[in-house]
Amino acid sequence: MVARSRKSTWLGWLFGALLPGTITLGVIGCDSESRSSGQPAMTLGQLSDEDVPQAAAGSLTDDLVGKTLTVDGEIVQQCPSVGCWFRLKDGTGELFVDLNPAGLRLKDKRVGQQARVTGRLAKIGKQFRLEARFVEFEPKPTTSPPESQNARGGTP
Questions:
Q1: Are 62 and 126 spatial neighbours (Cβ–Cβ below 8 Å)?
Q2: DSSP states along 111-154
Q3: What is the pLDDT of residue 84?
């Protein structure tokens, strides 16, 4: 029987224990809102297969509390410290969206961006809030000068 050296035992442990963990982190990722391209992710959380009714922020009622809903709108304010909430505004009103229950975070500034949020409706006092489970962002529009203008702002 051949005795193993300390070096080969140490290398075996290193590759046996650390390498699978490193590969797992590389595949799963640890950042819920970034992609390898450096662009912000267009979704947060996981969307379930259930049919979810669409709702408007200004037409929420007490009988909807505890139900899963989807609301579309513009992000008008977001948590400045850790990105755990934002306010969503549609044509009917404004709604507080809580990302904390699902462990979601906004890592990029999203104010002014359109979003579709799916989550469970809750009510604290007289205020409704949506506990987000899934958020889908529309791409930010790119702004470029019209092609018909030259560098001085006039037409060619």
A1: no
A2: TT-EEEEEEEEEEETTEEEEEEEEEEEPPPPP----TT--TTSS
A3: 94
SS3 call for 1: coil
AA letter at 28 = I
Predicted local confidence at residue 5, as pLDDT: 56
What value does the mean pLDDT take over residues 63-88? 95
Model confidence pTM above 0.70:
no
Name all domains of the chain by residue range, CATH numbers in brackets: 43-137 (2.40.50.140)
Per the DSSP assignment, residues forming a β-bridge with 68 are 120
Determine how many CB atoms are found less than 10 A away from the CB of residue 137: 20
Higher per-residue confidence, 150 vs 70: 70
pLDDT at 25 over 70: no
Q: Which two tokens stand for residue 135?
A: 């958020």
Residues 6+ apart with CB under 8 A from 76: 86, 87, 88, 89, 94, 111, 112
